[in-house]
Amino acid sequence: MQASGPGICEKLCYRYTIPSGDLNARMTFFSVLLALILEQVRALSTQNPIYNLIRSHATHTSQSFDAGLPRHGVLAWLVVVLPFVLAVGVIYYLLMRVNIFLGFAWNVLIVYLTMGFRQFSHYFTDIHVALNNDNVNEARDILHQWIGIDTVDMPVDEIVRHTLVHAVVASHRHVFGVFFWFLMPVGPAGAVLYRLAEYLSRRWTEPAPDRSPAFGAFARKVFYVIDWVPARLTAIGFAIVGNFEDAIYAWRHYAKQWPNENEGILLAAGSGALGARLTGPLAEVSSVDALSQGDDAVLPVGSECTPRTLQAAVGLVWRAVLLWMLLLLLLTLAVWLG
């Protein structure tokens, strides 16, 4: 009995002193999976108290700090982002010290709040249904409510194209970008950092009579840095689960058509992967004319957008989600078996 005692103690000590990095890796897959399931069962309203608190805090901070100089935007960004990120990180650390299951529940809650299709997909779904029912005017109205552009007399192919452009970017920012930062060592704090940075880069760069143009410059730049790697990984995912050759070709030739480099890469790769012309050719020429221009000619990628392309886009995004979830599952199994 005495000889077996140390062995049992050693096993128990090892069991309850697993390195925190291993614990994080083991919980991550199940946190994301459960959060996605919960989000599909009960979508989070965009008017929930937490979102309203962040919107109110961001608006009040911008009004208080904006004095026309770029450094005021830096201070305001830190005032909005740091308290939430630090609070989420500290709570996660304390919960993990108390019980791993409390830390797991906190992970699921934060992922549920920051990641999900249903936070933007109702517009996409409503437009899809309206076009399938040949109700073009309703589709125009929904698109106008979503992105605020003039949709009067907009043809069907342009309605679909604008819908796809915003859906591709939204799927990245609501799913894949959050996914990437949640996998970082900071865990749920990384997911909160990404969502807040995305929100401020969008909100503080919108034209407003009471906001100076310089105020949102820092928010835009810092989100570009934060989103640099995730945007390229999402584009690679689209290429793998879609038309790989066309996605890479469009990435090389059409990404620079968009003012935002990260969005340009997403849209170009998504265009090629879908086989739909989300980004038009650099020069409006036919394929035959482009071929006659020699080896340096840029060929159009994909065909014109149709309502059927919307369904294809849904399949593309879900396949990309399954791809990254499969990779995460393999990583989790490697940690468990290792």
What does this structure look like?
The protein is mainly α and 338 residues long. The protein has one domain. Helix 10 crosses helix 14. The protein is globular. The two termini are 30 Å apart.
What's this model, at a glance?
The protein is mostly helical and 338 residues long. 73% of the residues lie in helices and 0% in strands. It is a multi-pass membrane protein.
Coarse structural class: mainly alpha
Give the amount of beta strand, in percent. under 5%
Question: Largest sheet, if any?
Answer: none
For the secondary structure, the number of strands is 0
Helix and strand sequence: HHHHHHHHHHHHHH
The end-to-end span amounts to 30 Å
Radius of gyration equals 23 Å
User: How many structural domains in the coordinates?
Assistant: 1
Averaged pLDDT: 84
Q: Give the overall form.
A: globular
Topology:
Blueprint lengths: L3 H12 L4 H22 L7 H17 L4 H29 L1 H15 L6 H12 L3 H12 L8 H27 L5 H16 L13 H25 L2 H11 L6 H14 L12 H5 L15 H31 L1
Key structural traits:
mainly alpha; 73% helix; cobalamin biosynthesis; Cobalamin_biosynth_CobD/CbiB
